[in-house]
Design goal:
Layout lengths: L2 E11 L5 H12 L2 E6 L5 E8 H13 L5 E13 L7 E3 L5
Parallel strand pairs: 2-5
Antiparallel strand pairs: 1-3, 1-4, 2-3
Length: 97
């Protein structure tokens, strides 16, 4: 099993539509670990780690999003192989107000 890590940024109508909950739930179903949070600029950002196959499905899901989202673009960066996962689970990070 090849472990990978990737950072992501999702653009479009992705805040206020349960995108972070969708992302966390999808990650947990696929066995992906990491985090997701709202970016002050209106995007959703995060880091995901897991085996290659699970991450491919996770990345695909980010393009779809939950029913009320309108994803216009997804950027993936810093993709790399890992010796071991750096997170225990997948966390929906709350923004401080």
């Amino acid at each position: 099993m090849t472990l990978k890590t990737v950072d992501f940024r999702v653009k479009g109508k992705v805040q206020g539509v349960f995108f972070r909950v969708f992302t966390r739930d999808t990650a947990q179903q696929l066995g992906v670990v990491g985090w997701v949070k709202n970016d002050p600029g209106g995007d959703v950002i995060g880091t995901a780690q897991g085996d290659e196959e699970a991450l491919a499905k996770f990345k695909e899901a980010l393009w779809k999003g939950p029913p009320h989202a309108n994803v216009t673009h997804v950027e993936f960066s810093n993709e790399a192989s890992l010796e071991r996962l750096q997170f225990q689970g997948f966390e929906k990070v709350r923004n401080h107000r």
